[in-house]
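User: Please write out a complete single-protein record containing the residue sequence and its fold in token form, without commentary.

AI:
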Amino acid sequence: MTYLAQKRVLDLVVALGLIILFLPVWLIVPILIYFDSGRPIFFTHKRVGLNNKEFHLYKFRSMVIDADNILHKQNKKLLKEFKDNDWKIPNDPRITKLGKILRSLTIDEFPQLLNVLRGEMSMVGPRAYVRRELEEQSERYPETKPYISQILSIKPGITGPWQTSGRNEIPFIQRSKMDADYATNSSLLRDIQILIKTPQAMISKW
């Protein structure tokens, strides 16, 4: 069996196992989101995946409704802070009270398991980037352009090498380099090692 076939089997087994194991989360979280800030329960966002093709990434909604429009069209100061901090906002005011809890526990990312089952993502892989982020960051950091082509040569993952090494605190240049290294040096053993490290990385964020 080839590595890609082994990886797909691993993806299906782990994704289905986690969905079953955390079934109460799938039942309770939508109710909490509804009573906290209404609908929609899920947030979908276009991301760039394998071979530069876009897909809809799923998350439990952790921000106010229309958060993306608020950032890019209504709040220039917030947008500047977002871009100056490598597409991150410390203490983002758009995050709901419940959303802060969901994010701290990484529960908001659970629906990405559906992306894994659909074959759009893997359990382990590079970050699923927004196209605008890739374009603007590659212009800001031209040295990352070779890394991006390598990143887009494989499926993005729910977790990966930099998520288990420093979470979002790692700057874009280092993140893209680590993702590119994974894309060119991935193996089933490395995938399993990253999966084993992921719970510890999640706990260290609390």
